[in-house]
Every structure is written in C-alpha cells, then in structure tokens.
C-alpha cells in the first residue's frame, strides 16, 4: 500500500472464489477481460467532479425518495444506516478512460429503498439528485434496480470520504461512473427521461462502458 494514498491497490483483485457467500458479485467481474474497450487499469482512485466537494453536515444529511411512488419518504443518515445492508464486489469504470478493479461497496440496495416507497406502474426512469449545486444524473429504472446497484457509505470497509462522494453515494457498477451519483440526496421516479448535468453537456444518455457509450452522437 502507498502510504500517501490509502486507496492505492498494491496487489491484484480478490479472486471471486475467495469472497464470502453474502457478497453480491457484479456480473462484469466474471468477464475473462475485465477492462472495457478504451479503458486502462488504475491502482489509484482518482477524484473527479463537476463543481468541487460540497460541504455536507452529516447531522443534517437526508435522502428524499419521491416522484412516482406510493409513499414518498425521507431518511436521516442514522435511519439510512439502520436499513438492511448489502455488500457488492464490483469494478468501477470512469468515462475518462480509467478502470479501478475489485471494489467492495457496502450500503443499502436500491431495491430495498424503492420497495419501501412503492414504485408506481408508470415509472420508467430514475433521476438521482446530489448536494453538488443541484447536479443530477438520469438512468432507466431497470438499471437502477440491478441486483448490484446500491447507495454506499463504505468502500473497502472504510467510510467513503467526502472527496469520493460521502457520506453516501450511488453505485451502479454496470454503467460509467458518472451515473453513480456522488453526494446523493434524492431519488426521483419519473415516467419520462430527464437528462442530467453531464448528459445535457454532451455525455451519452445511457453510459454502457462495454459499448463505449461515452458521448451523444453530435458530440462524439
């Protein structure tokens, strides 16, 4: 381990057969080649964002679940952390062409959060809202409900730092990392798509790293 970077990966990713039975294994980690086209592996965890790290008071942090749901609700950080927990082993692919392999995320499954709210039949999309100056990202409901998707407060057994999106960040491993909203504060269910900050700026509306959905057609 690099003493100056506690997130530096000195070794190789954990073999899947060594993982505890309660860990959800993201499907992409089972690929023979885990690096998508146009990507290269990093052993670090680079810090990237649109506006810099916002100042978030953990005591006043809350998550709102709203829109096309039967029962909108809000959670404090303490309430969030009492919900049933999951661990997800997944790779992490940034649209800026780096991939960090073998991350262990822990938090609350997106399925648990939306089951609590009750999703209305007409809901088709999710908009994730962040504390970062109103930043949002959009994704299909089906992707948000992938079995390896969660809202995470731990990474590799440690609390997620503010620079990396803590106290709680989204994590949707099968899409490029900008779809995994840092500093998440809201989950909105919608009948129609609502492109977010980077999508309006020219990034692809979906973001599949294996088909290099990096930019919209006019921007590529």
TrEMBL record:
Pfam families listed in its UniProt record: Oxidored_molyb
Source species: Pirellula staleyi (strain ATCC 27377 / DSM 6068 / ICPB 4128) (Pirella staleyi)
PANTHER family: OXIDOREDUCTASE MOLYBDOPTERIN-BINDING DOMAIN-CONTAINING PROTEIN, PROTEIN-METHIONINE-SULFOXIDE REDUCTASE
Domain of life of the organism encoding this protein: Bacteria
Stated name of the protein: Oxidoreductase molybdopterin binding protein
Occurrences of domain Oxidoreductase molybdopterin-binding (ranges): 52-198
InterPro entries for the chain: OxRdtase_Mopterin-bd_dom, OxRdtase_Mopterin-bd_sf
């Amino acid at each position: 381990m690099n003493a100056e970077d506690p997130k530096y990966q000195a070794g190789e990713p954990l073999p899947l057969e060594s993982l505890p039975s309660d860990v959800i294994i993201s499907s992409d980690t089972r690929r023979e080649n885990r690096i998508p086209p146009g990507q290269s592996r990093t052993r670090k965890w680079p810090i990237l964002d649109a506006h810099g790290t916002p100042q978030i008071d953990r005591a006043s942090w809350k998550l709102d679940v709203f829109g096309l749901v039967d029962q909108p609700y809000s959670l404090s950080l303490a309430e969030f952390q009492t919900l049933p927990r999951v661990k997800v082993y997944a790779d992490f692919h940034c649209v800026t062409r780096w991939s960090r392999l073998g991350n262990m995320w822990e938090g609350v499954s997106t399925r648990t959060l939306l089951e609590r709210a009750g999703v209305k039949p007409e809901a088709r999309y999710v908009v994730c809202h962040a504390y970062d100056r109103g930043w949002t990202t959009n994704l299909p409901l089906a992707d948000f409900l992938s079995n390896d998707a969660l809202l995470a407060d731990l990474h590799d057994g440690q609390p997620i730092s503010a620079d990396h999106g803590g106290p709680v960040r989204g994590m949707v491993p099968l899409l490029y990392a900008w779809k995994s909203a840092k500093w998440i504060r809201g989950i909105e269910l919608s009948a129609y798509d609502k492109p977010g900050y980077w999508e309006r700026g020219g990034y692809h509306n979906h973001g599949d790293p294996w088909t290099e959905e990096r930019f919209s057609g006019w921007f590529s």
